[in-house]
Design goal:
mainly beta; 8 strands; about 45% strand; about 140 residues; eight-stranded antiparallel beta barrel
Length: about 140
């Protein structure tokens, strides 16, 4: 009985650690210029390193068979659907922030340094892409 009680207490203490917000999951991207839902991106954690892939194109004018014409690396002329746009983000020590990776904007082919911050208990994701002092922010919404 004593061991069972200890197991219950230890399990309850572990729950808050499991409930911490994470960028891993499926997100609806919201265009920072138009406010329009653009796509769905799946972010996965691969051994502490995040990557994200476009799973759905949701804009009315989106070409479902479009390719990344403006990309300048190995993603050039690859289909936008299935394109890996987030690479290499890692959790910052002691913070609920993932940084150090890159995010690609397939519309203009530019790659930005990335910062991901779960907000509102992980229901939304603040996405910041920046080059030097210039940056763009978007707030993505978790798909339930």
């Amino acid at each position: 009985m004593y061991r069972a009680m200890i197991a219950v207490v230890l399990g309850a203490l572990a729950l808050p650690a499991l409930a911490q917000p994470t960028p891993a999951g499926v997100w609806r991207t919201i265009d920072d210029k138009t406010g329009e839902v653009s796509s769905e991106v799946r972010i996965v954690d691969e051994g502490g390193v995040l990557s994200g892939t476009i799973e759905k194109l949701l804009r009315k004018d989106a070409k479902q068979d479009g390719v990344c014409e403006k990309c300048t690396d190995e993603r050039k002329d690859k289909p936008v659907l299935g394109l890996k746009i987030i690479r290499g983000a890692k959790k910052s020590d002691g913070k609920d922030v993932w940084e150090g990776g890159k995010i690609l904007d397939p519309d203009n082919g530019k790659e930005y340094t990335l910062r991901l911050t779960p907000i509102e208990g992980g229901k939304k994701l603040e996405v910041r892409g920046y080059i030097a002092f210039f940056y763009r922010n978007q707030t993505w919404v978790r798909v339930q």
